[in-house]
């Protein structure tokens, strides 16, 4: 498995732990104000990062490029800034709004970079991950 896939899966599981902790805290306190932060930690963190990691594992050719590495840091950095700021914004800290706005754009830039990774790889998608043919 490419290094970038391992990095994505290790980061993704940390976001799942954080997302579930926020969910459990909401359930125990019956304060659902941070629902949006919980959903974004789980979906941008756990779900999307796992999909990115899986894509690289299935298409290892493009996984060792500089673009893949830069994309990981841009996307992960954006989600790391955005989700705590969104939590603060939704729980009564309006001054966190510019951080949410700025980091959302960083996350979007990371997504556009991943689009470039997919389109660059389109000619060889699935080749390295294809199962060998059974002998007949
Ligand atoms: C033990 C794990 C989890 C707990 C305790 C939990 C708890 C909660 C709670 C209390 C809410 C608020 C419900 C409300 O506003 O009435 C919520 C909403 C939500 N959760 Fe979770 N959650 C968990 C895991 C997850 C995971 C793994 C995901 C996604 C991969 C997720 C995605 C969402 C979404 C999208 C919402 C918003 C739903 C809406 O507003 O309609 N949750 N969760």
Describe it for me?
There is one protein chain. This protein has 136 residues and is mostly helical. It has one domain. Helices cover 74% and strands 0% of the residues. It contains four helices and no strands. The longest helix is centred in the first third of the chain and has 27 residues. The protein is elongated. The model has no long low-confidence stretch (mean pLDDT 93). Bound molecules: protoporphyrin IX containing FE. Protoporphyrin IX containing FE (HEM) binds next to helix 1 and helix 2.
Helices and strands in order:
Blueprint lengths: L2 H27 L5 H24 L7 H25 L6 H25 L15
The site of protoporphyrin IX containing FE (HEM) has 14 residues, from helix 1 and helix 2.
Short description:
The chain has one domain (3-124). Helices cover 74% and strands 0% of the residues. The chain contains four helices and no strands.
| Number of DSSP helical runs | 4
Small molecules bound:
protoporphyrin IX containing FE
**Main sheet summary:** none
What is the chain-wise order of helices and strands?
A: HHHH
Overall 3D geometry?
elongated
Estimated radius of gyration: 17 Å
Uncertain spans: none
- Count of spatially separate domains: 1
Key phrases:
single chain; 136 residues; mainly alpha; 4 helices; 74% helix; binds protoporphyrin IX containing FE
């Amino acid at each position: 498995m490419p290094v970038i896939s391992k990095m994505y899966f290790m980061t993704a599981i940390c976001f799942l732990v954080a997302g579930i902790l926020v969910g459990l805290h909401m359930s125990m306190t019956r304060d659902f104000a941070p629902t949006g932060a919980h959903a974004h930690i789980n979906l941008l963190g756990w779900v999307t990062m796992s999909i990115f990691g899986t894509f690289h594992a299935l298409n290892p050719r493009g996984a060792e490029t500089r673009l893949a590495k830069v994309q990981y840091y841009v996307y992960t950095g954006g989600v790391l800034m955005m989700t705590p700021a969104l939590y603060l914004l939704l729980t009564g800290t309006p001054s966190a709004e510019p951080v949410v706005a700025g980091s959302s754009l960083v996350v979007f830039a990371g997504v556009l970079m991943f689009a470039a990774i997919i389109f660059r790889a389109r000619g060889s998608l699935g080749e390295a991950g294809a199962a060998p043919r059974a002998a007949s």
